[in-house]
């Protein structure tokens, strides 16, 4: 009661609100982008592709800044950049949005040379402490049907109904975690085919003996041969096959070289003349896989019962089991085994078909002699590249691609790659940002604003505001603002 009474007696101070011409712009992102353009000599890299009209570097700085700030569309990027104050900041004149599409196409049509120059500038500017790399590949949904790159394939975005492209990333591994290359391929190209493009793009910068880490999708005899011929080392995962069943059959956790009862992890090394297998058994993994297969058993039983019910009642199959295409006529008969099996017998039958005894087992392969602990630790750190993909798709938002020509697709991917590169370099340069998320860094840079206060005599006052721990750290080094 007392608190309520106090609230009634409080009067908020009234601030006079008078319309004015003052403007407030997010400035932190643009300052950061300008800093890296200068540091990595991007002005020379891109300047040679456009000598007349608007400066291509100013356009690119604007595009990357917008991608790290709002990032809705090229049209909205044009609206944002065409504000008088932003034009003044970027030293540009007003332009039509088609200029930005042409800029993307220019970047895409010169992709090989641009990415080669970026790679050289990175290694020239930074004395990276090693050249061990992680490789991985993903798919990105593509809207539009004109580009030959757009194909149906295995969708990591869970959109098999959409055309897509595949994208490969090469990243200097922990503790550097900086992407150094990006490759684009057709949407139906498998990882094992895409590998050579990704590898050849960066191999000139890899020292002899560099460790290349990639997953089982690209693990082929041909790809491993390429690595070994260049005197590199590799670490990859393997698909378990029938020959591994013999190892599993004899596997005894009590006799394993690696025994971690607390984590439920056990492992053995199998040394061969040209490679080493790191064979592991994980109790938590086994539990998760068995639980997943148990769910699959019950799902299949439920589906069989739905079909059996339709058969007994002489009705059409439920729609999800039918081919839903007006151009296809099909005659078929359906019979389930449920007529002669109890539920318990059906479950046992399904379990026998799904559970193969490999649950909980996994295997790594390398031509480098590591301990079981080292091999597993290095391979698990490869998930840093998954974080790059997540950042590209969900924070920088290069998915889904809404550009049409092949060159503009390449240009849009390279633009996103540059934005991600700058964020990764911020983490590399500033230890305090090492474990900060893309979302958090973007928000901090966006929060740093420039207020332009217009005086009666036409003079403008520039006021920087909303400094915090992150943007103060970055911007003080990049621009001298304090």
UniProtKB/TrEMBL annotation:
Cross-referenced InterPro entries: RNaseH-like_sf, Transposase_11
SUPFAM superfamilies in the record: Ribonuclease H-like
Domain of life, source organism: Archaea
Residues in Transposase IS4-like domain copies: 135-419
GO MF term list: DNA binding; transposase activity
Pfam name, any one: DDE_Tnp_1
One GO-annotated biological process of the protein: DNA transposition
PANTHER family in the record: PTHR34614, TRANSPOSASE IS4-LIKE DOMAIN-CONTAINING PROTEIN (PTHR34614:SF2)
Protein name from the UniProt record: Mobile element protein
Organism: Methanosarcina siciliae C2J
